[in-house]
Design goal:
Length: 343
């Protein structure tokens, strides 16, 4: 437990050398929180009741150009989102002896755990400036008993929020399937069977220009829904520049994962993104990762393949992709190579 940031860091200390990234990987002084951009599309899901075609068009365009978008009027009550965010903040503020003794672990096979930096801490070259909590969400009756017992309202609020977020994710996937022309039910069942939650906690950092909360990567899953609260830090790489994803009230950030890119045969973008830190404010974010089952067979949708649009990727089971992703440490330059079809 000594690895967790609040257990050893004080504001008077300089940034330890083990957290300083090489110059070409640092965010720099001008790419930290102020690099906010309004370019990331914001889509009103509530408007689909009277103009579903427009919402589908907006989602597809955002997914093709950015691989990221935000949604509003998604149906999740603001109070529930606030309660869930508050319970995670309270979790990370608990005294260490109460907080993580039952779930803190370096065991990679433990499914509910708190980790500092990453699961690769012992052999990674540079550490990340974060602590994170992760655990599976479904089926709830199987996994909720291993979730943290404190704060008292943890299981109540998190289970309610997960249920609502999963509905939104399936709604978005239905719209994507319809827009791609592969059917609104394409992503049901095994393709979206599992959901994992990752809660990232970024304490104030003594020098945000030298380190990162999360390095450049794209998500290996199908789609990600993020509650990012009201503190900036998430950045998306587009056209050679890092642009910020501005927090909006009651908004959800949606990003396309590798599996959607592959199923769409490259039509949808799986954008690189990272997280920068700041020197004054704690940032806590809640990510829900919608994931295929390990045995789920992934391949480009047949309806998208024709003479002018040949298949770009071979078929595989998700378990194979996931193993390759972590073996390659999520490096975006090489993760897809074993699955591409030579032209």
């Amino acid at each position: 437990m000594e690895k967790l940031v609040p257990n050893w860091y004080s504001a008077a200390q300089p940034l330890p050398e083990t957290y300083i990234f090489p110059p070409d990987a640092r965010p720099g002084k001008f790419s930290i929180a102020p690099s906010i951009s309004n370019d990331i599309p914001v889509i009103d899901l509530g408007s689909q009741s009277h103009d579903r075609a427009l919402v589908i068009q907006q989602i597809l365009e955002a997914s093709q150009e950015f691989g990221f978008f935000q949604v509003i009027n998604h149906g999740i009550p603001q109070a529930l989102m606030n309660d869930t965010m508050d319970v995670f903040k309270e979790f990370f503020e608990l005294p260490l002896e109460e907080k993580r003794a039952s779930i803190y672990s370096d065991d990679p096979n433990k499914v509910c755990k708190v980790v500092h930096s990453s699961v690769n801490y012992d052999w990674e070259e540079v550490h990340l400036w974060r602590d994170f909590l992760r655990h599976p969400c479904e089926p709830l009756d199987k996994f909720m008993p291993i979730w943290p017992r404190k704060p008292i309202k943890y299981r109540e609020h998190v289970s309610k929020c997960f249920t609502q977020v999963k509905k939104v994710a399936l709604d978005i996937l239905e719209l994507i399937g319809e827009g791609l022309g592969i059917g609104s039910e394409y992503f049901n069942d095994e393709l979206s069977k599992e959901t994992d939650i990752f809660v990232n906690h970024y304490p104030p950092c003594p020098d945000p220009s030298l380190t990162l909360g999360i390095t450049k990567h794209s998500d290996p899953q199908l789609i990600t829904i993020l509650l990012q609260g009201d503190v900036s830090g998430l950045q998306v790489f587009k056209d050679g520049e890092w642009i910020g994803v501005e927090p909006i009230s009651n908004g959800l950030v949606v990003n396309i994962g590798y599996q959607l890119r592959i199923i769409s045969n490259g039509k949808l973008k799986c954008a690189e993104h990272r997280v920068v830190t700041n020197s004054s404010t704690v940032r806590t974010t809640i990510g829900f990762f919608i994931t295929p089952s390990p045995d789920c067979y992934i391949e480009p949708a047949g309806a998208l393949i024709n003479a002018s649009n040949p298949r770009l990727y071979r078929g595989f089971r998700y378990e194979e992709f996931r193993a390759n992703y972590f073996k390659k440490q999520g490096k975006t330059e090489v993760v897809l190579e074993p699955f591409k079809i030579e032209s």
